[in-house]
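seq as requested:
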Amino acid sequence: MRVLFASSEIDPLAKTGGLADVASSLPKALKKAGIEIFLIMPYYKKFVSKSGANIAPTDYLITVNIDDEKISSRIYKTELHGVEVFLVENDELYDREQLYGTPEGDYPDNWKRFGYFAYAILELSKLLGNIDLIHINDWQTGLVPLLKLRKYPELKDTKTIITIHNLAYQGLFEKEILHKLSIGMEDFTIDGLEYYGKVNFLKAGIVYSDFITTVSPTYAEEIQTPEFGYGLEGILRKRRDYIQGILNGIDYEVWNPSTDKELYKNFSKEDILEGKEANKIKLLEETGLKEPEKPLFGIVSRLAEQKGFDLFPPIIEEIAKRDINLVVLGAGDKVYQEMFINIAKRYENIFVKIGFDPVLAKRIYASSNFFLMPSKYEPCGLGQLIAMRYGTIPVVRETGGLKDTVKDIDEGGYGIVFKEYKPFELLNAIDRAINFYRDKSAFNKAVNYVASLDFSWESSAKEYIKLYERVKHG
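struct tokens:
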């Protein structure tokens, strides 16, 4: 089976979030399982050049009419994990300081940038020939199924699947862009890509794709409700027979405590307790924290409401007074950054670093006893999977992929789970974790257990292959 996997970002070529991780790791696992797979992404030169990848031009040229002008691109290529990656060159559209916008807001021509990218995906499908399925991701590729249906009769046998990584981001634009993208007004309806008078790229993908996946089974159910549907729950319920949640995985070659060069000391399942303790002592030294006998709680996150940080202000003082150490690494909303900076100044058991530091992140995953992820919603979540890979017990809210991957200790599980999205529910979860830590026998057993769980991409890839076959054969 020949699959073209389209994403607006792919790690390590260009990355803003978890989509880039999936677009790198899933195709690698699919290729290993026997799928003939190709990747396509815009050629963001400033980002790609920093990755150190070897880039070469191909003979492929594409030309598309957008906004009454002919836009042409040379297709370049590189390779990741043995998978060919095609890059759509257009410096005016893609060679910018950021992928999607500035701190002031999204680039106003994102409709053009990703409308053109959608056409480029279909043009490359023609050039490659015999593509059985195009797997698109999020709003940036959402126009592909509609354009295929209306503009590319030669691709009528090529199927499309869209994966929704985060329904909150939908790609909304004024209806005037339809003419500029050569899309007829007949599709600007409530059953098409119209959304409260605007054009919705993600809705186009949901309506016109042959199948829809999300990144966890629970999230697939949640997005069909008003609480998590962001206005698209109606159309998603209408297509519920064509929706499946397949859990994301993590790359076990990248996230491997026995070979990870960033750790103070490597460890395996055989010496996990000693290895984690050695890392913990070193991390406390690096961060200036004391008393290694205390439980160490770690946070590696974007500091935003979606990630649960609006729960902290009423209880942060109480958390700081607990007999714990807390290490926080992240950046995001100013209010939460300042909250953590201020509390760290007043309590010597809290260390905060604002920003992203991949080395420190890995050390926190490996050294912590507990990993905090109190998300308001979480389509899948990678942090809890990485933490468990390194033998760290997750403390999470019961939502999305967190619900699918973490089972509470009171229900025969291995993590701490709270249900209601309230500050004192989070505080209670932290207190439960502290008590659990004191029961050394049960705690050590849980550490060993979480480290033995398999959240690698291999099992997820098998699910995708089954779905590909089903969709291909109709």
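The chain has two domains: 2-249+458-472, 269-455.
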